[in-house]
Amino acid sequence: MLSVIVLVVVLAITQAYDNIALNKSTYQQSPYKPGDDTYDAKRTTKVSEVYGCHKTGYYTSNCSIPCPDVNCQLCHIETGACQVCKPGQQCELECDRGFFGIGCNEKCGHCRDEYQCSNETGVCLTGCGAGYKGDLCKTRCDKGSYGVGCNETCGHCRDLNQCSNVNGTCLTGCGTGYQGDLCKPPKTTKVDLHIQFMENPESQFFNEPFKNPSSREILPAIFLSTSLISGH
C-alpha cells in the first residue's frame, strides 16, 4: 500500500508540460485540478503573444500583413522579424540596405561603402567613410584630425573643436595669421640648382669618343631637383 502511495506522489510531482515562452519542459509540484469556470485560465498565455498571430505567415495586431520573409512560418507580431521558419526552409531575408541586427532595427554607421555593412553585426567590411573610425564607423575622429582613417591633421582653426571631422574645414574661421577653409599655409615648391663642370661629358655618359680627340672642352652639367614642402 505504501509503494502505491509513493508512486502516486511521484507521478503528481513530476507531471510535466511544455512552456512555450521559454521553449523547454516545465514541471508542476501539485496535480492539475480542472475547473469549470472561465477565470481559471486567466494566467494562461496566448501563443500569439509569444510568437505572433494565430494565422501563420502573418503579423500586426489584426494579422493582416504577410511576414516579410516568405520562408517564415511565425514572425514577431509587431516587427515582423521571423522567429520560426517553415519546415525545411531557411529564413534568409536580409535587412534593407543600411540596417542590421535582430528585426533589422539597428542602423549602420558611416561605412565607406554602404553596401558593405554586415546585415548581422553592422561591421563596415571595407572601412569607414571620411571622418569616422571603429568597426561600426559610428565614432567621430578625435579632435584635431579628420578625413579617411582620421589621418589628416586640422589646420589653425579659431576653435579646434569646430574643425570638420569629414573634410577639415574650420567652421568658425581661422586663428590669427591664417586664412582659407582649412586655415593652413599654402604648399610651396623648393627648387635646388646644382652646376657641375665635367670634362668630355659625352664620353662619360654616352660612351662615345669625340669626333675631334684633341678637343678638351669643359662643359657644365646642370641638374635640377624639386621637392614639395607642406605648410605647417
From TrEMBL:
Keywords: EGF-like domain, Signal
Record bears the keyword Signal: yes
Coiled coil: none
Gene3D superfamilies listed in its UniProt record: Tie2 ligand-binding domain superfamily
Molecular function per GO: scavenger receptor activity
Signal peptide feature range: 1-16
UniProt-recorded name of the protein: Scavenger receptor class F member 2
Organism field: Magallana gigas (Pacific oyster)
